[in-house]
Amino acid sequence: MAPPFTRIEYADRLERVRIAMQTREIDVLIIGDPANINWLSGYDAWSFYTPQIMVVGLELDPTWIGREMDAGAAAFTTYLPANQVVPFPENYVQQKEIHPSQFMAEWMISRKLNGQRIGYESDVYYLTPMAVDHFKSGLFESTWVDSGRLVNWLRLIKSPAEIVMLKQAAVIAGLSMETAYNRLRPGVRQCDLMADVVSTQIRGTPQFGGDQTALHPLVLAGESASTAHPMWTDAPFKKDQTIAFELGGCRKRYNAGLARTAHIGEPQNTLINTAKAVNEGMDQVLNSMKAGALCCDVHAAWQAVLDEYGLEKKSRIGYSIGVGYSPDWGEHTISFRSNDRTSLPENAVVHIILGMWMDAWGMEVSETIHVRKNDAICLTQFPRDIHVINP
After folding, report:
1. Is 54 strand, coil or helix?
2. Fewest C-beta atoms under 10 Å: which of 3, 150, 205, 364?
3. Average pLDDT of the segment spanning 6-14
4. 328-361 pLDDT, tens digit each
5. pLDDT digits (tens, 9 = 90+) for 198-238
6. How far apart (Å, rounded) are the C-alpha atoms in residues 184 and 98?
7. What is the value of pTM for the model shown?
8. Mean pLDDT calculated for residue range 74-100
């Protein structure tokens, strides 16, 4: 096992992080998001349920600090030398009196980082207020700066090697949707169908295997399809149900999303007309998307179709996607909304999800899209029409 990318790729990412730190006048950066840690170093383990960070300085090489039993993963998922992997002892794990961030702060003090301008990620799931409080009290001579999503925004532009990884994830997404379609029948339990989908996601292809997607696959069946993120149950699928599948594929933690809709029995005109509007909207989104396009203009292209059909969708229609860990595969940067004036860069990859959640039913269509200089292309080639099951 080896890191998924070359040393040169990771060195380039580090250089970009340091340039951004200099621009923000940050001497030391504490990274808590495991997706950002992975992007910067390749580190990969299900270790983020206990505190772990990566510390990067303008004059300090990236150093992972985490639980002792997880330190070994650095040896085969990163190029980090031993002195850049710092384990905290087991007696720090989930104790009332001491916290791992106290150990981390003491290590930073030993490296003479106290008194510097330290940035930290304030809005990540994994760096808790308690952890930040211990950092600040331990490194009390430092100036603390909210670094926001500094690393996330650097991840927005994908390298050629990352595009390859996302294309492979998109292949797995297509296979997973094919499994869902083939398994869907009246009487089949939702949980049984999803077990087959997850198996396909992890099995991947003969050429490359898959990983667990950062957003667990979702099935929206019947009345539960009137909301966006219900969990599956052991209820059987029924005749005259509309079912939306929000699935995906993952390769080396790079995620590609794919949503489609199926119906058991004869679709009603309401579903047919809504699907027609959604498909036309997706076409307009793709036609409006290229490097330099504004997110709000892409949204406006979609909204124009909705207005024509007299439909409404209050939520955003998409976001950037890439390397990710549970509970989310979005990069937390751009969102396709009416007021987001972010300019799409060349080689961004985005997930456009057009979910229409109505009274007592719903449908979804989504694409993972590679933004290129003059156009945008879908990474998964899979029919968008409503998949009809004749019971």
Report:
1. strand
2. 205
3. 98
4. 999 999 999 999 999 999 999 999 999 888 777 8
5. 999 999 999 999 999 999 999 999 777 677 788 889 999 99
6. 51
7. 0.95
8. 94
Tell how many helices (H) and how many strands (E) occur in the chain.
10, 15
Take residue 349 and report the two structure tokens written for it.
């990859």
The order of strands in the sheet holding 254-264 is 218-221, 242-251, 254-264, 387-389
How many CB atoms within 10 Å of residue 47?
Answer: 19
Q: Which of 118, 122, 170, 165 is nearest to 144 (CA)?
A: 118
Name the 3-class secondary structure at 247.
strand
Over residues 37-69, the pLDDT tens digits come to 999 999 999 999 999 999 999 999 999 999 999
Answer whether residue 312 shows pLDDT above 90: no
What does the alpha-carbon distance between residue 351 and residue 353 come to, in Å, rounded to a whole number?
Answer: 6
* Phi–psi pair at 142, nearest 5 degrees: -85, 160
Cβ neighbours around 143 below 10 Å, total: 13
Give me the DSSP letters along 313-344.
--S--EEEE-B--TT--EEEEEE--TT--PBP
| DSSP secondary structure letters along 13-29 | HHHHHHHHHHHTT-SEE
Pairing mode of beta strands 63-67, 85-88? parallel
Q: Are 284 and 304 spatial neighbours (Cβ–Cβ below 8 Å)?
A: yes
Contact 212, 247 (CB under 8 A): no
Task: Calculate the dihedral angle through the C-alpha atoms of 327, 333, 336, 341, rounding to the nearest 10 degrees.
Answer: 170
Residue 308 neighbours by CB distance under 10 Å: 11
